[in-house]
Amino acid sequence: MTDDVAGQVIKAERERIRCLLDVDRGTFDRLHATEYRLCNPTGTVWTKAEYLDLLTTGRVVYRELGLTGDVEAIVGADVVVLRYRCVIELTVDGADIPRHDAWHTDVYTDADGTWRCVWSQATGIMDLPSAAP
After folding, report:
1. Which helix (H) or strand (E) holds 53?
2. What residue segments make up the domains of the chain, in order of their start?
3. Model's pTM, two decimal places?
4. N or C terminus of the chain with fewer C-beta within 10 Å?
């Protein structure tokens, strides 16, 4: 049962990623809960409506967004937490954000038999400068 639920939610997450790349409004609406919030790597929090507006107006354009490893899942009674590493390249308000790695944590809840993302957190992975010899 737990593996089945994890598989369903991981499949939904892959579909959610695709809808961000394609700016698929219908899929976006179906896979994001009304109370959805995204905390992006700058620490800015966007609501579902704000995020969709940024995507549909072209203020946020994902040029690349893809998994680079396995998706880990913690499954509860009506909540699933996903964590995975991905690569991102995008434009925000006309500024190119270069290709970089990030960790994503996404929380899904079961709403009437449909798993919807309620929270997303993206954390950029930085290369730290080497210590001087």
Report:
1. helix 48-56
2. 2-124
3. 0.91
4. C
